[in-house]
Automatic annotation (TrEMBL), chains A, B, C, D:
The chain crosses the membrane at residues 101-120. SUPFAM superfamilies: YutG-like. InterPro entries: PgpA-like_sf, Put_PGPase, YutG/PgpA. Residues 160-183 are annotated as: Disordered. GO terms for biological process: lipid metabolic process. Residues 28-158 form the YutG/PgpA domain. It holds the Pfam family PgpA. The keyword Calcium does not apply. One of its GO terms (molecular function) is phosphatidylglycerophosphatase activity. This is Phosphatidylglycerophosphatase A. It comes from the Bacteria.
Length: 183, 183, 183, 183
């Protein structure tokens, strides 16, 4: 049996593919910030960057990115057979495999991620809008992948913020308890 | 083995439950119209009503409605054990079983349905907004169920409009072909 | 705007692609029969064929079939970039985009479809086994697509059988009522 | 605004509920072992226990457990309204809300988790079989929840084993490199 492809190779390829197609982690972080700032007053852009970066560590998302961008590029090069070539090229409204692939990796971050993904799919924000408007390249799959990563990072952050909040509360309790023990 | 519950009984119960909790098919049709009118210039409110009504014929949705409304009502009557009672009563942000149950029946109508559901979950339109603002009753599950039915009806309609369009085109072709055969 | 690809073209392409890759509707019907016969004593192979055929009328499944088989064929021809080429070629265990694409169209037939899909994915039956054992061709996506169609057709059938049963019961009641009215 | 329910309270309640309904983490670990041993020759029962325990730390699963067991218990006490009471009591074949709730938390662990869940739903193993055969209590939701936790723990383990494997390989490479540097 052949040695399986190393995780590092897959992760690096996915990150490189995103970059080559014009998507920076900063672009994704901006969407995350826009989605989550209303719920977390102390949210920083660094939190959002960190969360988007963490999401990109998951195999499920790396695989989705590799497949989606490959299909976009093959479509650009007119290397798909018909009628698939036309379906993807025209970003046909009833074609949903792009959303399906993106959804697969969104599920990993719970129902907030799924609803945020749906929202971003309709209200194309930031880089998603830019990809959607780019008429020279095919981004039928990429826009959904970016929405997927941003949605996942948003949900991940919502959970983290809560954990942080609760821990702070626990720390405070602990500190109070410690202080009560003093003397 | 006991005779299974008849489908009619389940369907009637689900429709009655929605009505009793203040949700009319017309309310759902309005959301569907708002979501789909931009894509289908000839869309009528009757199309939207018919689509919402058709979605309610599916078992998956009827079951989801029965479970969700039951949990809302039990919560109102303080009949759930803690901490579930508090989680549902406060419509806790990280509690996602309401979305999960609603999503289960959305999947049946494809990826457009899923993204529309996500959108409606964020941008609470029409009756969903009203349910969300109602502070006297518990609608933790119902708002998602309504979003689910509206999203499913929207997706169903998108597919129907396309079918209708293509058939018209075929009819036109057929007519032209028929006319060419005349004489 | 370009005219969208006609539904008939998409449907014919999907059916042709399955056939060319060695999958007949009869093969799928056999799996459906094996899955459902235990629940429905009167089930015929014709019921199963009809159900598999009906599932193939859905856009969601046609699109999934086109994308999946395209990726299998491109992999066979070594036309994908690395590391995706190796991931698909080796049918890497942690690569799940094939299941994700297949799942997308399974959801349309409810939770029985999802669990049946999961079962078929583990216990490779009939043609799925044959595809999996075929070492000359790449069927990384196709085996999941077949499991998806078979699972959807099984769930569809379970719902149909129940409808049929209930209608028979209603007919019987109706007949009894009619007879009671006689004379 | 009321203080949200603390995570610890939710987690403890979910763990206690499982235990009270007769499900130990050891029972779940056994299923995990049976599912994964074939893929990982060095797998220990401790690995499986640890993985099942880790899955129970996720909010999504805790919430699903709380809702599902609550519905089972309310059904036992005949406190649900009809026809929902009968649907759950009879574990009606076409009722899928139990699978939907369980699936919601399975998605978090990728497509291997989903297919393993489907398999366990059909081939009721260990404690799942026991719950299914228990005619004195209602376990319509619990059997799916256990399948969900076991499936998630299995998928989590599959990913962990791979990570472990790759790290070992890296360690070996590192050691070799270090040795080559010696002298
Ligand atoms: Ca797209
Ligand atoms: Ca809600
Ligand atoms: Ca496969
Ligand atoms: Ca069950």
């Amino acid at each position: 049996m052949k040695k399986p492809v190393s995780c590092d190779v897959v992760e690096n390829a996915a990150r490189k593919a995103l970059k080559e197609r014009g998507v920076l982690i900063d672009d994704i972080a901006e969407i995350v910030y826009e989605m989550q700032a209303q719920y977390s007053p102390n949210l920083t852009m660094d939190d959002c960057y960190e969360s988007a970066d963490a999401v990109l560590c998951k195999r499920e998302i790396q695989h989705a990115v590799l497949v989606g961008i490959e299909l976009d590029k093959l479509t650009e090069k007119k290397q798909l057979s018909e009628p698939l070539q036309s379906l993807i090229e025209s970003d046909e409204g009833l074609f949903g495999v792009d959303e399906t692939i993106a959804l697969g990796s969104v599920f990993g971050f719970g129902s907030i991620a799924v609803t945020t993904f749906g929202y971003l799919d309709k209200e194309k924000k930031g880089i998603i809008k830019k990809l959607d408007n780019n008429k020279e390249q095919v981004h039928t799959f990429l826009d959904d992948l970016v929405a997927s990563i941003a949605a996942s990072a948003s949900a991940r952050l919502a959970h983290r913020m809560r954990d942080r909040e609760e821990n702070k509360r626990k720390d405070q309790i602990k500190k109070r308890e410690d202080e009560e023990l003093i003397g």
